[in-house]
Amino acid sequence: MKMILLEPVFKQMIWGGNRMRTEYGYDVPGDNTGECWAISAHPQGDCTVATGEYAGMTLSKLWESHRELFGNATGDRFPLLTKIIDAQHDLSIQVHPDDVYAREHENGSLGKMECWYILDCDEDATIIIGHHAKTKQELEDMIHGAKWKELIREIPVHKGDFFQINPGCVHAIKGGTLILETQQNSDITYRLYDYDRLQDGKKRPLHIAQSLDVITVPFEESEGTQASGMIEDANEDCAMSVRNQTQNGWFEHLITCEYYSVWKAELDGTQALIQDQKFMLGSVIEGSAILDGCELKKGDHFILPAGMGDVTLTGTATFIFSAMV
Ligand code: ZN
Q1: Most CB atoms within 10 A, among 47, 78, 195, 221?
Q2: What is the pLDDT of residue 247?
Q3: Catalytic residue (one of 191, 197, 204, 243)
């Protein structure tokens, strides 16, 4: 069983920058590339396999026709999505529904739970996580009264921070922030506030009614949300395999929630990776390494399929790994 390397899909966004090219060397379609859908089987951005036996096949097709590569996991669609997001300008402040709400109101879509690893940000950068309303009534009043400054919870952010964003959590990244996002395979977003900005002379539509339906009140800080290196293991009980959560110490466990586990791994020399999950998603965020005889460099994204067993990695690199739960 071989590693499966993927070709990302790029998305132009009005708020996007050029760091996909300057930081990662991707051959991007334009200067406002906001999102790199790096490991995705979503209809809006279905990655293709780059090399090997399945070269040219989309990830959705691979999931459909070769479920053995994914440990015979069940489900009508590939469960996760890995993205890199480059925000040159502030993103609109938004919130996502959970599975139950999305199934009913969004044509059977999955909800969206997501988490962010901060790859880079400006000095003194901030991030929007949560709100200050104490009751649903207060939330409604503040939204209808346009009291955004009082409502929105804005906190400092630093390179290397990690945030878990549950459905119902108000959130946004600001200009100058580069993140790696691990999320459920969904594209449902409700825009709560867009800083009253104009695009072609018009404000972009907001989704106030849906936002009011799904925002959690009061805001609860997620257990996996920790700033600046204070990350501790959370919810280990629901992890599929606790035994190798840290891979003999070179993995740092960032989160396990009901949909995914995420780890950061620092490689310096040679390490074994025990692939005991159904399958694992990997992204190289710094450096380069050799895995399974294949060279990997910063900006490469891959899947370690089921039954791969122990893998040897050599090099100096930082990875984000994830697995379905
Ligand atoms: Zn989001």
Answers
A1: 47
A2: 86
A3: 191
E-strand ranges in 126-187 read 126-131, 152-156, 162-165, 171-173, 177-184
CA 243 to ligand 1 center in whole angstroms:
31
How far is it, in rounded angstroms, from Cα 102 to Cα 276? 31
Answer yes or no: are the C-beta atoms of 165 and 115 closer than 8 Å. Answer: yes
Other CB atoms closer than 10 Å to residue 169's CB: what's the count? 26
* 19 is known as an active-site residue: no
**Residue 177, domain extent:** 4-214
Specify if 230 maps to a domain. no
Q: Which residues of the chain have pLDDT under 50?
A: 227-243
Cα–ligand 1 centroid distance for 165 (angstroms): 7
Tell me what pLDDT residue 189 has: 96
Residue 254: predicted pLDDT:
95
**Residue-level pLDDT at 82:** 98
User: How remote is the CA of residue 48 from the centroid of ligand 1, in Å?
Assistant: 24
pTM for the model stands at: 0.92
The count of structural domains within the chain is 2
- How much distance in Å is there from the Cα of 94 to the middle of ligand 1? 7
User: Are 208 and 96 part of one and the same domain?
Assistant: yes
